[in-house]
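To: structure subgroup
Subject: Chain for Friday's discussion

All,

I'm putting the inputs and outputs inline so they're searchable in the archive.
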Amino acid sequence: MAPARAQRREELLSDCIVSPDVFNQMVDRLGEFVVPYQHVLETEAGQRNVHLYLRGLLSHLPGKNAEDIATFVDVERQVIQEFIGTAPWDHRPLIQVLVGQVAAGLGEPDGIIALDPSSFPKRGTHPVGVKRQWCGHRGKVDNCQVSVFMGYVCDHEHALLDFRLYLPQEWVRDERRRQRRRQQCHVPPEVRYQT
């Protein structure tokens, strides 16, 4: 990265840092907001861990990764890592709660659903769906993941409703070496062998 661009980036990032203290006044409200989502999680462990995870996200921790959050909330790293990364749970009931809340709280007769693809630069070949493909973030073909986001937009408000990670054909085709990579990344079985 060019020195001038790197300096400008640092200036922008320093302006964007928000202290977790700003959340202190809204923690109770956030706790109430989470309850409908917590109830649709399938397991008791998932219902308990959502609060632990949120405590970590709203903390003063400099890094918000599973290991740091687990240490902060005093549980084994694997508990948080499994909750956010590998535990099998269905996200669709959570999306239904969110869509209902957005419709009730923000719904307008002239509101629209907007779809937006976005790419995320990645290193290596292990992140699910990664491949050398067009990376809008970098403005060139590069190693990245691509997702499609669905949002609700009206004159006064907007809200993210759902997203899907794009799996390139190389990740979907049933070939032995690729099958192992999909299993290691926890690609769900229902998309594992589609063509």
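Points worth raising on Friday:
The longest strand covers residues 140-153.
The chain has two domains: 3-86, 92-192.

D.
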